[in-house]
Amino acid sequence: MKRFRRHGHESQRDRLKQELFQFNKTVEHGFPHQPSALSFSPSLQLLAIGTRSGAIKLYGAPGVEFMGLHDENAAVTQVHFLPHQVELVTLLDDNSLHMWTLRAHKGLSELLEIGRFTLTGPPGAPPSVTRVTAVLAHSSGELLLLGTEGGHVFIVEVPGFRELEERNISLDQVSTSVPEDYIGRRNLEHVEALQENPLNPNQVVIGYGRGLMVIWDLEKHCAIQHIPATQQLESVWWTEDAAYILSSHSDGSYCRWMVGVEDLNDEEEKSDIPYGHFPCKAISKIVQLPAEEGPPFLFFSGGMPRASYGDRHCITVIHGKTHVALDFTSRIIDFFVIRGGSHHTGDPSALVVLVEEELVVIDLQTEGWPVIQTPYLVPLHSSAITCSHHVSAIPIKLWERVIAAGDLQKTHYSKQPWPITGGQSLAPDPPQRDLLLTGHEDGTVRFWDASGVCLYPMYKLSTAGVFHTDADPNDNMNQGSEGEWPPFRKVGCFDPYSDDPRLGVQKIHLCKYSGYLTVAGTAGQILVLELNDEAADQIVEAKVVDLLQGQEGFRWKGHTRLDVREEPVQFPPGFQPFALVQCQPPAVVTALTLHSEWKLVAFGTSHGFGLYDYQQKNNVFVKCTLNPSDQLAMEGPLSRVKSIKKSLRQSFRRIRRSRVSLRKHHVNNAAKLQEANARLEAELAEMELAPVQRKIEARSSDDSFTGLVRTLYFADTFLTDSSHNTPSLWAGTNGGCVFAYMLRLPAVEHRADEPVTAQPAKEIQLMHRAPVVGIVVLDGHGAPLPEPLEVAHDLARSPDMQGSHHLLVISEEQFKVFTLPKVSAKMKLKLTAVDGSRVRRVGVSWFGSSKSEEYGESGLVVLTNQGDVHVVSLPSVKLQVQYPCIRREDVSGIASCVFTKHGQGFYLISPSEFERFSLSTRFLVEPRCLVELPLHSGSNKRRIHSDGGSSTHRSTRLDSEDAEVLQEIQKSLEGDQTSFLENNVKSAVA
Amino acid sequence: MNKNHRVPSNRSLSAVEVKSKFGAEFRRFSLDRSKPGRFDEFYGLLQHVHRIPNVELLVGYADVHGDLLPINNDDNYHKAISTASPLLRLFLQRKEEADYSTFGTDSLTRKKNTVLSAVLLRPDAARKKAPVIISLPRDFRPVSSIIDVDILPETHRRVRLYKHGQEKPLGFYIRDGSSVRVTPQGLEKVPGIFISRMVPGGLAESTGLLAVNDEVLEVNGIEVAGKSLDQVTDMMIANSHNLIITVKPANQRNNVVRGGGGGGGGGGTASGSSGRSSDSGASYYGYSSQGGVGAAASMPTHIIQNFPAGDLDSDEEEDLVIDARGQAEPIRRASSNYSMPLLPRYEPHLNLRTAASSTSTLSVNANGTLPASGSSGSLSNTNATSSTPSPERGTERRSLEEDGTVITL
Question: I need a surface site. Which of A242, A301, A989, B46 has the fewest CB within 10 A?
């Protein structure tokens, strides 16, 4: 640091800051919150998802992803790729249409919005006339057909959004050609569906809400055929040979109609209610696709018997004798089918279903239709995330063992490769292997490969097996008995229901060198686990630790301890628990750390902390930090929640009472009504007027939860004298207190039989009493001490033991450096006193310079309650940079944030999505991908045929007129593509 | 392992160790905690043990917060005995040489941040002039003060609350609100932070310097404009040991009248301006019309210049470090870059205080609440201890104080 002290070091430092720090939000992991629309482009092999918040996300091959956000804060209701183009159209809740494109720039594609459009009706027309309900992207790639609530179909030229008024199909034009007996006096209602003839792009079928379908010729501008269905229409599908139209209806039926070109009366009708007899729910979408051999595949969603299974979310797949009702755990948004063969015209190969909480892909080529594991869009929240822990630079050996353990859990997945393959990922291989561990409410810990753009699930550890829980773990598997109708099959992994909230995982610590893992939960349980490649039967012995240490007069009103299974439990290969500590009172574990070299685990709750020797399975010591007058901490979490609930309930009841009285008397007593009204108003006014106020009071030792242990830290440092370093344990509490214990470890050869001892050495009471959120010891060079075993594995420089060490205590309000072993204040940085923000999360990171390979420095990364991230230099504790990161109202986002050792971080932007950000110029994980239209003219021709729905060898019905049109379209398409190619080349050259 | 810390308290139950210092001499003796006797007996005892029978003495002791407080009557003598844990440290001065300014909050720790005794009986050579003493602070310690009257517009008031060493709660609440400002564009409504409630008997109320609906403009020299209620709350709590709030009082009748014409161009010399809205306008202009010094942006530096150096330092609160032997000592600051120049800036401020007669080192307010607030210093302590509700509660407290040597010492 000395070289910066010279004159003019400020500007040098500023330049260095630019080389070290840079803030980027790089990629979103997980499953989009509240998806609302789905589309797939067979030619690009890309999947698009729109969300209620107006985001649009595109996914192709793993690593290929794009994201866009509409400026309007409106839900995306429909997404449509323009056939054979790189454009897509979105329809929003506010009736606006948006054109997006994937434009290549410097060899990478980016998703850009290139146009927006809102239908305008004739002056004076009601808004329903132009309210878009159905969109058809015509296979020519030049036309967009927009069906509206008023029953009109507007035709718009794309990508420029030019209205072709002369080609619009108005309701009047249609109804004049419909037989009188059908029309009657009733309205045709809105346009529910628009479908193109797979063989003749000039023909489209328009499905009206009331049931009528009209086949319309775009060229001749007239109706060709009417299909007079009588039930409320839900969806329409034109079979690939163009011979039939399938329609699905709100009563749970679907019909097949023969398409006869001339004779209106000669159509054949075949109707079926698949789950019939009793009233059924609507079939919202129906798809039929041919198979090379055998009968076609039929897919439809919904249609369940209303009374018995009306609450199920099902998609039925029927192929010959095979009939399965796929039963999802959340609402179905939409689905599509991917077809095999080189031109995507072969047998259906995979069914892709977007449900509210996950994306499920079913392999239709393998017997039994297994699920294909998704490489992205994984539901992080299949059980609610309760904590997360990031471990950087995992050694290859541990990595492979975790993968091997995970593979054994994935045997029920299909072996087929991921069927969506669009685009190519150009991102460099990640420089290291990173693990993100998430703890969940159901007691599981999930291991994610967080090295690259895709957060890929590696392995899942369940801790519930150690305990007796109310629910039978096989509960879910028992269903699907023989002969059940409908033939349900549960799919998907989203399961938000936790059997026992006490199982929830609250803290995780993994030693990447030794493979020891410790996991702590809501009911004061701390498990120590070891990676084992073999399955094993073992008894996990519980050690109950009393953290109250004889403090009397308290009653724990919270939950009870978990019941431990006393019989041997079989643990599958992977992380297997071998030691268990249970805190008494069983309060949630608030701090946890593991030292694999010393084989010690330290844990803390709101009552105190303890040190556990997992080699000897013996508790070394316990320290009670509880303030005797702190009743809240004693009562446990439940009573507090109850009181909040109670007061809420009371206030609701009060309002309701006045409303009830209002309702009761409103007929006979106007005066009373007024009175009640006035009272209600007064009450509401009082509610609004009661100002939000904050108490200004210095913290005192009597505050609640001052004893809550916030952080625990192991360090080999100079605790008592400056010539001998010793192992030590540090603990920081909510009340601004730091406790330091000197540890005596027996020599290695006696480690198994001689006891580990601990001796209190130091206590620091910070006068500002703010919660201590982090403790770090800095070595003689001012660098943070390395992790245990890091030096032994030659992965870190050994710490400097010559110079004097320093203790850095991070409270919510300030950063303070003390000398060691004599704890005297040396420097500090105040945060709260200056700008009113408080430290919420803190981590130590290493930042490499973008300019010179060898220069780098350590720093503290800090997230405040205002949602800003700061970097604070070490050891000088000076503020380096500050960036706004999270909205300050997003409390759960701020609480979920976790930092990596290389200046990146993750936080939850919704229950199911992590946002990844980077503060480092050197470590940046972001998608870099390229999507291009398939360009080979030979296959291009084929593809146009196929996407048009036809294949030459089967199209016996293709007449000459159709062929001409087809060729025309093909030509224009090719023209477009070559010009696109030229553009592409130009931009690449530029 | 807890036992280490409990040792002293066993002793403290029976006897009080007394370490008395006069000049360079120390005397040690012990007193029975349960039967301390009267002050004059004690005074005689001191004269006896120091062998200075005919010397008029000023007796002071170091209280649990490290403040030097006087012993001159039965009440404060008993208080001193009862709070000694376990050692009672006394400092004796000849009355004629007494340096009264050493009494009060932070007085022992403020200056050198070293051993307590070093402060008292070494007359500060650096000080050229004896400070003007407005009244003998025998029974008092500062609770609050109005500061920086010379640089603030008359419509604003900067109040310092000495929480340190008080058992009284700060005792006020703040809320969001809006205030009207006059800008070149006309009247403008801007969000602001206001005092919403005073806790009866709290420090804030007892000073009489703050009132409900006063607008909070700054906290320890940092403007609150643009900050959320929660941020301002956190700032105040973070500064609670030495809280300096600049407010625009809702009641503008009791503003400090500045002598002479050094003030801004705004509201003239009459303190009680009539309308509130005109006040706010005037004050804002007055504020900025003081030129670069008074401009909002430069406020922080300006304030720092006006604070006594000791004040700044006192806010550097002393963390307590207890090592394995269970003895507490305030942290010594490593000498490196923290040796602040002591006191030279103190004098101009004092001069100002004499000039502006309405401000003193004690809480003085023009609206006549002085007696009530002034006496709250030492009385509050006795009140607080005597008001522990039940004997049971009392013993519980005691047990708290036992590892309390750790927590609260």
Answer: A989
Question: What's residue A732's pLDDT?
Answer: 96
pLDDT tens digits, B335-361 = 444 333 333 333 333 333 333 333 333
Per-residue confidence (pLDDT) for residue A285, from 0 to 100:
95
pLDDT value at A326 more than 90: yes
What gap in Å lies between CA A795 and CA A789, rounded to an integer?
9
Residue A101's CB: how many other CB atoms inside 10 A?
Answer: 17
- Annotate chain B with three-state secondary structure: CCHHHHHHHHHHHHEEEEEEEECCEEEEEEEECCCCCCHHHHHHHHHHHCCCCCCCEEEEEECCCCCEEEECCHHHHHHHHHHCCCEEEEEEEEHHHCCHHHCECCHHHHCCCCCHHHHHCCCCCCCCCCCCCCCCCCCCCCCEEEECCCCCCCCCEEEEECCCCCCCCCCEEEEEEEEEEEECCEEEEEEEEEEEEECCCCHHHHHCCCCCCCEEEEECCEECCCCCHHHHHHHHHHCHHHEEEEEECCCCCCCCCCCCCCCCCCCCCCCCCCCHHHHHHHHHHHHHHCHHHCCHHHHHHHHHHHCCHHHHHHCCCCCEEEECCCCEEECCCCCHHHCCCCCCCHHHHHHHHHHCCCCCCCCCCCCCCHHHHHCHHHHHHHHHHHCCCCHHHHHHHHHHHHCHHHHCC
Q: Does pTM surpass 0.90?
A: no
Question: How far is the alpha carbon of B41 from chain A, nearest alpha carbon, in Å?
Answer: 37
Q: Which has more confidence, B132 or A592?
A: A592
pLDDT at residue A294, as a whole number: 85
Residue A821: the pLDDT is: 87
Q: Residue type for B363, please?
A: S
Supply the Cα-derived Rg of chain B in whole angstroms. 23
Whose tokens are 């060198």? That residue is A513
Q: Give residue A38's region: left, alpha or beta (phi > 0; psi -120 to 50).
A: beta
- Chain B residue with CA closest to A838: the answer is B234
User: Nearest by CB to B396, which of A629, A837, A888?
Assistant: A629
pLDDT tens track for A253-289: 999 888 875 554 545 577 888 888 889 999 999 999 9
Which residues from chain A sit within 8 angstroms of residue B313, using beta carbons? Answer: none
Interface test with A, best of B164, B229, B321, B408 (most A CBs within 10 A): B321
Q: What are the chain A neighbours of B230 within 8 Å (beta carbons)?
A: 694, 836, 865
Q: Do B324 and A837 touch (CB under 8 A)?
A: no
Instruction: Report pLDDT digits (tens) over A682-707.
Output: 666 655 555 688 888 888 777 778 88
Token pair 């399955």 is found at: A535
Residue B147: the pLDDT is 84
Share of chain A above pLDDT 90, in %: 51
The pLDDT of A200-215, averaged and rounded, is 90
Residue from B334, B355, B360, B339 nearest B104 by CA: B360
Of A692, A765, A826, the CB nearest to B407: A765
Quick check: B199 and B175 in contact, CB under 8 A? no
Distance from CA of A867 to the nearest CA of B (A): 12
Tell me the three state secondary structure of residue A496.
Answer: coil
CB contact under 8 A, B170 and A627: no
Is pLDDT at A670 greater than 70 in this prediction? no
Other CB atoms closer than 10 Å to residue A983's CB: what's the count? 12
Cα of B195 to nearest chain A Cα, Å: 9
The residue ranking higher by pLDDT, A447 or B170, is A447
**Residue B402 contacts by C-beta under 8 Å, 6 or more apart in sequence?**
B5, B6, B9
Confidence of residue A357 (pLDDT cuts 50, 70, 90): very high
Here the tokens at position A776 are 């770090």
**Chain centre to alpha carbon of residue A557:** 35
